[in-house]
């Protein structure tokens, strides 16, 4: 597959990084010479210095032979024009545009395939709000990803001291064997797709899949109490903060939102009925204490300054906030901030990467979720009639080492698979795979007739 990426920022870099590992034909365009230099020093992909709005440069990149354009520049306008030009140069290719301006999203008829040629729009802010809302549903979770319309949840929990999971082998978890499957363990910078003999250790980030209706029972077994959120505090009233506050305004959760910009606070206060808007500095210890931070169940820091977000979260934890969610844009910061005591991290760029990947993967891929550290993915895929994975026991399928099926969804039935489980056509599968074996999984899922 030939893929042209416009924009060599964090999103473009990490998409290109994943695809280069899989030996895809990638061309990356950016007008910033330092970003291009970074790509050339770290990735084995073709680069072009210039703007994605240049017809000549798009032709030089091979737009007429390309299968897909990913317009992921920092400028919405560059992304829109890139798609418009690509529509003229290659009307048959698939085009994805990352757009941050909500005004563009409100008038989607202007940005349809018929006018600009855009097949799919990615909005990182709305995706991040969804991620935060999912985290609110499950106490103590470091990551929550919904599959099959929310019927299956992929949950990441950090194993803390005192957890009954410490020093347990996966094969010993007999009381939950039919209800969940541990699909990945992240230990430091290493990702393990585990087998029965693998041991869970303190500080591991453990990802497991569980059906929504079994979630309460599983949390109870792991000694995790389900508690309804009563008080939430948001720091940062930008696009994401405003969208989150508006979503909470329609719930019974007691919420407050803090921002330094007086005009922004005034405008937001006119929109909200239940959420309290406070004009102030979230790094101000006295303000946090005055607003009873010690009674807050969840603090969400989503200002545009990630250093401030980290500082506010650590300060709030020290003052008694039960749990924090912190916005981090630079993906390289995520492992570092997790190590210094930040509970949960959300990233608009990681949200965009997750959304884009599902359209790049071959076969009937429904959604893709890179796991923390980005060395592994959880993939939701549909098993089709002619794929190599159907109508035989899983134990007989030549799954690559570093991959495992975490769940099978057949109509209303959710199956936590074992070796004798058989995948049927139209089943939905949740598959965990290390980065280096994703291409092999794609071959198992690919319907060969589609490519004739």
What does this structure look like?
- The chain has 452 residues and is α/β, with parallel strands linked by helices.
- It folds into 4 domains: 2-122, 3-Layer(aba) Sandwich (Rossmann fold); 127-221, Alpha-Beta Plaits (2-Layer Sandwich); 231-350, NAD(P)-binding Rossmann-like Domain (Rossmann fold), CATH 3.40.50; 355-451, Alpha-Beta Plaits, CATH 3.30.70.
- It has helices at residues 10-21, 33-42, 55-60, 76-89, 102-106, 124-137, 215-221, 239-248, 262-271, 285-290, 306-318, 334-339, 348-360, 438-445, and strands at residues 2-6, 25-30, 46-49, 68-71, 94-98, 120-122, 143-147, 152-158, 180-187, 190-192, 205-211, 231-235, 254-259, 276-279, 298-301, 324-327, 344-346, 365-370, 376-382, 403-410, 413-415, 428-434.
- It has a 6-stranded parallel sheet, with helices on both faces. Strands 14-13-12-15-16-17 form a 6-stranded parallel sheet, with helices on both faces. The chain has a 5-stranded antiparallel sheet with strand order 7-8-11-9-10.
- Helix 8 (239-248) links the parallel strand 12 and strand 13.
- Helix 1 (10-21) runs parallel beside helix 13 (348-360), helix 6 packs across helix 8 (239-248) and helix 6 packs across helix 13 (348-360).
- The longest helix is centred in the N-terminal third of the chain and has 14 residues, at 76-89.
- It is globular.
